[in-house]
């Protein structure tokens, strides 16, 4: 449980020299256990957290006094208080997805070293881009472009292609019609002029992953073309309700080829995307973002 908490709630921006507070860690162990089991007795909490009964009693008393936990009047079992939802009720589905994805992206970066990110379609903000929600660009030991790009080109990026390829035909047609009518992004216009989007998406569906369009070298959404020295591959985030985003891994083109990246890193990227999608579906986030 302790390891799970550290993975889920990792203080990624803090140095190792900063020590954690043991009492707070233990309190969250109890809160997580109550969230998992809905309600529990002291004996059940002792079994599932590994904490001793005296320690649990002190923690439960503290949590009850601050209003985080209550004890049922009838069954005398402990439960998390409803008011804890107030801390997260202002989070949007996008915020929740970023929170869910962060530990998986962190694990992926630790394993492959290159940075990754997740994004969703900017359907409520114009529709001709992907919106990057979370990234490990600041964690990679390699030299990469660390420009913060909240908006990513839709039609030529790996992330956009991975998302678009999994849409139903009607949804895809609606988005593409909107892009053709209203987009002023240089790379979207370039993709339309190239005329190869349909064949590219077919290839993505067949292979299960997407690469950047050969003519897309980077650059900020809505800005001029700019070679960032990177290449990327992306896989979709899919739940029962449909596709709701994409996970992307990027690398320096001078360091490794696309073929090497696919061979070495695609399985890990797919595994991370599958885990993110499963957790997002479990928490009801995927349904609110699915297309």
UniProtKB/TrEMBL annotation:
Residues 83-282 form the IclR-ED domain. This is DNA-binding transcriptional activator MhpR. The keyword Flavoprotein does not apply. Keywords: DNA-binding, Transcription, Transcription regulation. SUPFAM superfamilies: GAF domain-like, Winged helix' DNA-binding domain. Residues 21-82 form the HTH iclR-type domain. The keyword DNA-binding applies. GO terms for molecular function: DNA binding; DNA-binding transcription factor activity. Pfam families: HTH_IclR (PF09339), IclR_C (PF01614). GO terms for biological process: negative regulation of DNA-templated transcription.
């Amino acid at each position: 449980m302790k390891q799970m908490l550290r993975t889920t709630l990792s203080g990624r921006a803090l140095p190792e020299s900063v020590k954690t507070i043991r009492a707070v860690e233990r309190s969250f162990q109890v809160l997580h256990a109550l969230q998992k089991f809905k309600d529990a007795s002291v004996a059940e909490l002792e079994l599932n957290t590994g904490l001793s009964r005296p320690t649990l009693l002190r923690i439960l008393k503290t949590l009850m006094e601050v209003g985080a936990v209550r004890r049922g009047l009838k069954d005398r079992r402990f439960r998390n208080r409803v008011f804890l939802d107030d801390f997260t009720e202002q989070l949007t589905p996008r915020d929740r997805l970023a929170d869910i994805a962060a530990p998986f992206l962190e694990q992926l970066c630790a394993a492959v070293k290159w940075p990754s990110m997740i994004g969703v379609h900017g359907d409520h903000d114009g529709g001709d881009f992907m919106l990057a929600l979370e990234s490990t660009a600041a964690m990679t030991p390699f030299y990469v472009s660390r420009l913060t790009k909240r908006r990513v080109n839709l039609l030529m990026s790996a992330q956009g292609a991975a998302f678009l390829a999994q849409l139903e035909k009607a949804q895809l047609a609606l988005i593409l019609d909107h892009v053709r009518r209203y987009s002023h992004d240089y790379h979207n216009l370039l993709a339309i002029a190239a005329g190869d989007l349909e064949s590219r998406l077919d290839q993505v569906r067949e292979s299960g992953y997407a690469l950047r369009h050969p003519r897309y070298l980077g650059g900020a959404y809505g800005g001029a073309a700019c070679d960032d020295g990177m290449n990327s591959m992306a896989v979709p985030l899919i739940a029962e309700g449909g596709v709701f985003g994409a996970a992307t891994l990027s690398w320096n083109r001078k360091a490794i080829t696309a073929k090497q990246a696919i061979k070495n890193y695609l399985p890990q990227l797919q595994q991370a995307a599958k885990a993110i999608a499963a957790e997002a579906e479990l928490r009801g986030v995927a349904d609110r973002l699915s297309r």
